[in-house]
Amino acid sequence: MSRAPGISGEAFLDLAAESVPFVAALGCRIERFEAGALTIRLPYADRLLRPGGTVCGPALMALADIALWGLVMSVLGRIELAVTTDLSFHFLRRPAPVDVLADARLLKLGSRLAVGEVTMRSDGDPHPICHAIGTYALPRDTAGGAAGTPAPGRPGVDRTGRSA
Amino acid sequence: MSRAPGISGEAFLDLAAESVPFVAALGCRIERFEAGALTIRLPYADRLLRPGGTVCGPALMALADIALWGLVMSVLGRIELAVTTDLSFHFLRRPAPVDVLADARLLKLGSRLAVGEVTMRSDGDPHPICHAIGTYALPRDTAGGAAGTPAPGRPGVDRTGRSA
Amino acid sequence: MSRAPGISGEAFLDLAAESVPFVAALGCRIERFEAGALTIRLPYADRLLRPGGTVCGPALMALADIALWGLVMSVLGRIELAVTTDLSFHFLRRPAPVDVLADARLLKLGSRLAVGEVTMRSDGDPHPICHAIGTYALPRDTAGGAAGTPAPGRPGVDRTGRSA
Amino acid sequence: MSRAPGISGEAFLDLAAESVPFVAALGCRIERFEAGALTIRLPYADRLLRPGGTVCGPALMALADIALWGLVMSVLGRIELAVTTDLSFHFLRRPAPVDVLADARLLKLGSRLAVGEVTMRSDGDPHPICHAIGTYALPRDTAGGAAGTPAPGRPGVDRTGRSA
Q1: Total domain count for chain C?
Q2: Strands, E, within C1-156: which ranges?
Q3: Which of D137, D148, D162 sits opposite B164 (nearest CB)?
Q4: Using CA atoms, how far apart are residues C9 and C2, in angstroms rounded to an integer?
Q5: Considering B99, C73, C81, D128, which has the largest number of Cβ atoms within 10 A of its Cβ?
Q6: CATH of the domain at A101
Q7: Closest residue, chain B, to A69 (C-alpha)
Q8: Rounded distance, CA A97 to CA C124, Å?
Q9: Contact A107/D129, CB-based, under 8 Å?
C-alpha cells in the first residue's frame, strides 16, 4: 500500500488527541500509517492495568476505536464527522504488562460505509490478544462530494462496496 | 428482582475503581443494583467529549464493560477473575452532552459463561444511544464449586445455560 | 405501535419466500406485524435439528435475518434492496424441539441505516434462546426519495439517527 | 500447519451433513483441512439466491457456522457437543452468482473456549464478501479429559488462552 493521502500519521494522532481528551490520555504513537493499513502503539502505563496485572479491556477498546478512525483518515484524509456505527470485540489472551500494538486494515470502503479490522498483540509476542471489527458511517460529501461515485485509482482499497 | 447477594453496588464500584484506575477516572455512580439488573450513571465531563460535543465512544464502551462486570458480581458476589470474552456495540444516536445512564440485565447465567445486555441513554431522553451485548467467562469455582449444578433459589436469573 | 404502512405481514412473507427459496424452505409464519415490531414463528421440523435434538444455529440465524428484513419493511413498505451490513448473535440456551418465536423491534431508523434487535424463544418458554442485533443499509431513495429528511409522523419509531 | 489429527475433512463433512440436514442441503465441499485452518466451498445453486441474483445471507451464515465447527474438529477431533456461543458477521460486498469459498482459521484454542475467524470470497475474486468471527464452547472433557491441561505438541495453535 502507498503512503496515505492528505494526512500523515502524526497529523491524525494530533487531531485525535486534540479532539478527544479521553484518547489523548492513552498516549498512543503511530508505528505505520499507510492508506488502508496502520499500526498504533499503546504505551504501557500502570493506570491502564486491571486485576491480574494486565492491560484493561476499555483501554484496548479505545485503541481499536482510534485505529478505525485512523484507517478512514488514512484513505480519505481529514474527516471529523465519521462515526462508528458498530464495533465487535473478541478478547483472546491476557495481555502482558507491556506496550500493545494494534494492526488495522480496511476490509471495505464503500461510498457510505467503511469496515475495518484490528488485531492487537503484546509487544514481543505474535499471538493476538484481541480482535476487533467495526463499521464507520462516512459523511455524505466524502470522496470529493460525490458519495456513490468512487474516485478512480485510490490505492490499496477496493471500493466495490456491497451496499452502502 | 431482589437485592444482590454478597456485594452492594457501592462495594462493587469501589472494587472496580480501586482495581482499574482507568475506570475510576470515569467517576461512575450506581443508580440501581439488583441481582441481574442494574443502572450505572456516567457523569458528564468535558474530558469525555468528542468532536460534535458528544460523549465519545470509548467512554461508552468502558461504561458497558463496567456494567457487565457489575452484573456478574450482582449475582455471584465478589469475583475478581471474571473476564470479558466478547463485547459487541451498536451506536444508535448521538449522545447529548449530559450524563449517560446504562441499564444492564443478565440474559444468561450458565456455569461457565454469563451473557449480559446494556442499553445506554442520555439522561432525560428515553431513546437508546448505544446497545452492547457481551459474554463473561466465569472462574471455575463459581457457584460454590459446583459448576453445572445451579444453586437453588438464586433470584432473578435462569441458570439453564445452553452450553457453558 | 400501529399497523404497518404499505405492506402486510403476509405480503412481506410472500415476497421473502418468493425471492429467496432458502428462506421459503423454513416455512415461517407471521404472528404480529406492526410498524417497527413483529413476531415470526419458525415451525418445528426434523430437518432443522442438530445433534442433541435441538434447532440448529443456521435456522435461527436465517430467522433473525428474515425478521430484520421484515422490520424494515414494516416501517418503510416494500423494499427489495435493503441489505444487512452486520449481524451479531449470542446463543443463550439450547432450543427445545418445538417452534421458535422471534420477537423483533427496531432500535433505530435513520435516513441511511436501520438497527434492529431480535430475541428468540422456544414456544412455551419465556427464556431467550438467542439474541441477535444487526444493521440494514437502506436504499438512497427510501422515505419518499428524501433520505435525510425523515417523513413526519411515522408511527412507532424514532428517526433521530445518530449518524447515517 | 500439519494434517488435522483424528478426523479428515471428508469425515467432518459427512458427520455434519448426517447430523444436520439443513447443512447437508448446502452441499459444501472441503478444499483444505489442516489443524486450525481450512477452506470450504459452497457450490452455487439457484435456491441460495436472493433478490439481485446474489447468494443470500443465511447461506453465508450457515457456511460460517459449518467452518467454525470444522475448525474445532480439525484440532480436537470428533466433537459433537461443541456449541457456538456467539457469532458476528460483517457483509462487505455483494457475492457474485458463483461458488463461495470460506477460509477459516483458529485465533484461540483455550481449555474451554475456541475462537475462529472466517473470511468468505466469491470464487475467482480475492476481495472479501463476508467476515465472520465466533466462539465455540468446548465440552468439559475435551483434550483427553484434562481441560486446562493442554496436550503438548498440538500443532498450529497456541493454547495460552486468556480466560477460558
Answers
A1: 1
A2: 29-34, 37-42, 49-50, 54-55, 83-91, 100-109, 113-122, 128-137
A3: D137
A4: 13
A5: C73
A6: 3.10.129.10
A7: B57
A8: 49
A9: no
**N- to C-terminal Cα separation, chain C:** 24
User: Quick check: B128 and C160 in contact, CB under 8 A?
Assistant: no
Q: Residue A77's closest CA among A35, A45, A27?
A: A35
Are B89 and A86 an interchain contact pair (Cβ–Cβ within 8 Å)?
Answer: yes
Q: How far apart are CA C25 and CA B138, in angstroms?
A: 39
Q: What is the pLDDT of residues A13-29, one digit of tens each?
A: 888 888 777 777 888 99
Counted across chains B and D, CB pairs separated by less than 8 A come out at 35
> Would residue D123 count as lying in a domain?
yes
- The mean pLDDT value for B132-150 works out to 65
Contact D20 C84 (CB under 8 A): no
What is the mean pLDDT of the segment spanning B44-57? 78
Question: Could you tell me if residue D153 is inside a domain?
Answer: no
Domain that holds residue C115: 9-137
CB contact under 8 A, D163 and B135: no
Measure CB to CB from residue D58 to each of C61, C86, C90 and give the nearest one: C61
pLDDT tens-digit readout, A91-150: 999 999 899 999 999 999 999 999 999 999 999 999 999 999 999 999 875 543 333 333
Among candidate residues C24, C160, B18, B143, the one with its CA nearest the CA of residue D49: C24
CA distance A82 to chain C (A): 8
Distance CA A136, CA A115 (A): 6
Centre a 10 Å sphere on the Cβ of residue A2 and count the other Cβ atoms it contains. Answer: 10
Q: Provide the b/e sequence for A116-133 (b: ≥16 CB within 10 Å).
A: bbbbbbbeeeeebbbbbb
Distance in angstroms (rounded) separating the CA atoms of residues B133 and B116: 6
Nearest CA in chain C to B129: C162
Would residue C104 count as lying in a domain?
A: yes
D53 touches chain C (CB under 8 A): no
Q: Is the pLDDT reported for residue B21 higher than 80? A: no
CB contact under 8 A, B137 and D163: yes
Chain B residues lying within 8 Å of D137, measured CB to CB: 112-113, 163-164
The gap from C-alpha D157 to its chain's centroid, in whole angstroms, comes to: 15
Q: Is the dihedral of CA B39, B45, B49, B54 positive or negative?
A: positive
Q: Is A34 on the interface with B (CB under 8 A)?
A: no
What are the cell numbers at A22? 479521553
Chains that touch C (3 or more CB pairs under 8 A): A, B, D
Q: Which three cell numbers stand for residue C104?
A: 423483533
The residues near D133 (Cβ < 8 Å, ≥ 6 apart) are A88, A90, A131, A133, D87, D88, D107, D115, D116, D117, D118
